[in-house]
Amino acid sequence: MLHIVSKSPYADASLESCLNHWRDGDALILIADAVVGALAEGRFAARLKGLALHVLTPDLEARGLSVKALVDGAVQVDYEGFVDLCAEQPASLSWL
Amino acid sequence: MTHKKIVFVSRKAPYGTNAAAEMIEVVLVAAAFDQQVHLAFLDDGVFQLARAQTPEAIGHKPFAQNLTELEEYDIDHVWVERESLAERGLTEHDLMITVSLVGRAAMAEVLAEADMLMSL
Hints:
The complex is a heterodimer. By secondary structure, chain A is of the alpha/beta class. Chain A has four helices and five strands. Classes of the chains: A alpha/beta, B alpha/beta.
């Protein structure tokens, strides 16, 4: 499954709930405000490490965060990469 | 038409937004189109099922009526996450309809087995 998280994990429990329902083979993409959770020095780095983590580049750049180091193993993707992820996984869930 | 297994994921408390009410309407439409419809309540979504709601006092229509309709519409399964209830101080006895209670890992499995996942 592709988990799509769009809310900042500092303000909302959707990332937490997503990670609590994680299964082997799943992938995660952080978009919109959720990209703030992907910084290597942030509070959520430890929980995100080792997961198939993707971060939407335009949302990082928009917030001035593309210059910051991301969680180990995080892969930046553009909109086309986002579509590819959706196509690769059998289903996707938006944690709204 | 192929019968897809659609799991509707409801994670919002009722009345603060219209998300919960709209979700129930979409669920009933999907069921009318003869799809395999599952409804999953987790996180704050479990508050939607609490008995004895009187939302008329705050200008909202009650959920109870729509939820009890679920059975008539042949919804395949209503899943509720046990941990979400417990964390919020609720038990299954606080719920207004009969549901399938599942633990968090089993809920993850319900989600993983869907052909399509819908959330609002």
